[in-house]
Amino acid sequence: MSLLPEDKQTIFHTAIVGGGAAGLFCAGSFDANKIVLEALEKPALKVSVSGGGKCNFSNRFVSPADYRCAQKHFCKSALAAFKADDFIRLLDQARIPLEEREQGRLFTKSSARDIVHLLVKRAKEHHTRLATNVRVLDIQQMNGVFCLRTSAGTIQAQHVVLATGGISYPELGGNSFITKMAQQENWPFVEQQPALCGFTLPKNLRTVFSTLAGNSLPARVSCEKHTETDALLFTHDGFSGPAILQTSLFWQPGQQVEIDFLPSQNVSRIFAAHKNSSRLFSQVIADYFPTKKIAKILLGTQDRDLANASRAELDKAARLIHHFTCIPVGTSGYTKAEVTAGGLDTRGINPSTMEVRQTPGMYVIGEALDVTGRMGGFNLHWAWSSAYVAAQHLKNKF
Ligand SMILES: Cc1cc2nc3c(=O)[nH]c(=O)nc-3n(C[C@H](O)[C@H](O)[C@H](O)COP(=O)(O)OP(=O)(O)OC[C@H]3O[C@@H](n4cnc5c(N)ncnc54)[C@H](O)[C@@H]3O)c2cc1C
Q1: Which of 331, 349, 383 is the last residue in one of the domains?
Q2: Quick one: which of 255, 251, 249 has its CA closest to 372?
Q3: With a 6 A CB cut-off, is 187 part of the ligand 1 pocket?
Q4: Cα separation of 317 and 302, whole Å?
Q5: Is the pLDDT of residue 8 over 90?
Q6: Considering the domain boundaries, does residue 309 fall inside one?
Q7: Is the pLDDT of residue 1 over 80?
Q8: Is residue 122 scored above 90 in pLDDT?
């Protein structure tokens, strides 16, 4: 529903820009006359499709170490204030069953849409008008009141919460409103980049690996100080799969990525056990891979028969399997990235309230901030935690 004539006459206690995970959760966490302004026809579209439709809403083991943020300690207080158990309690009260999967990942047993319904219901129960199809174009402060110019007219509020998310997945609401606000208000900003996405490879490697597109295998992927052991998927452009998606969160353009394609084995030892074999390297290790052609493609022109291989050739082949290195030319971009890394610099935000230091009365929560979680429920958990602490501060402001 769009704006009503009376919305334009009212001075709301709080206007929340963005009816996604963080915006709706904030609206449902304190009582005050407030309005949520959502650009799309339906709220929380990302939540609806999250976790493959089952919403990986949090993680049992959430900790600050699961987040990338230029200010290492920023997210500590919000994560301490609102924990996975707090969200679980809300689901229990609403009789939404949950399921715990590997590595503490928490999902709904039913459907992600149940969580969206819960978010909307809670917001409405806490005196919130939800105005969809209303895009906020610009915010100015006049005589101590915020004036929000929207696609449906101007509204006024004493406080504003920016919950406009990141750039990724434009069809689900991704946009750069926070960048525009930061430029307008001169707030510090951390450059954004797509994250939790695949890598694209230089043309020569793309040609080699595209023949494996669709195949996946367990791999250990390292970049700088970060190492992930999980599935790697070969694609037409390069590499994807959970191990790569997690790595993309910490990767900076130009950095080298190292991959161990057979982390559970020692290829040198396998070669030693077959040292007089007339078979090729790739034939001897083929059985350790999900499909035989993977070893052949990985070894390429370095494939030899074991009996005639020199020590240097054996070592080189083992290095190709365990220490393959490449410099990705880029990522699969914002249309496929699950999240946007970077955003509003948290040096400009009070970590206990999410209020913008330079602009009292203005709050920023969720993915719009320079706080980006690993895969596994951490990003939605950040949306809840940051929204909760903003709400705790706002509920005492009259
Ligand atoms: C396909 C996909 C699957 C995901 N799965 C998971 C998962 O299982 N677990 C997990 O933890 N994370 C997951 N994520 C990430 C997670 O969904 C986001 O990190 C989270 O939704 C961020 O919450 P937010 O409220 O900050 O932003 P969003 O949920 O993106 O909400 C922002 C809202 O603001 C609105 N908006 C923006 N600008 C304006 C404006 N100017 N005026 C009015 N409205 C505006 C947008 O339309 C949008 O609805 C997934 C992301 C994607 C894309």
Answers
A1: 331
A2: 249
A3: no
A4: 6
A5: no
A6: yes
A7: no
A8: yes
Q: How far apart are CA 8 and CA 302, in angstroms?
A: 71
Same-domain pairing of 24 and 162: yes
Q: Is the CB of 281 under 6 A from ligand 1?
A: no
> Which of the listed residues 285, 303, 331 is the one where a domain comes to its end?
331
| Domain coverage including residue 254 | 199-331
Does the Cβ of 376 fall within 6 Å of ligand 1?
no
* Beta carbon of 230 within 6 Å of any ligand 1 atom: no
Global pTM reads 0.95
Average model confidence (pLDDT) for the chain? 96
- Domain of residue 83, CATH code: 3.50.50.60
Residue 50 phi, psi dihedral angles, 5° rounding: -65, 155
Structural domain count, the chain: 2
Ligand 1 atom with the smallest distance to the CA of 43 is 49
19 and 166 assigned to the same domain: yes
Q: Whose CA is nearest to atom 37 of ligand 1?
A: 164
Flag whether 259 is in a domain: yes
Residue 163: CB partners within 8 Å, gap ≥ 6?
16, 17, 18, 19, 20, 22, 23, 26, 364, 365, 366, 368, 387
Q: What is the pLDDT of residue 276?
A: 87
Q: What is the mean pLDDT of residues 133-155?
A: 96
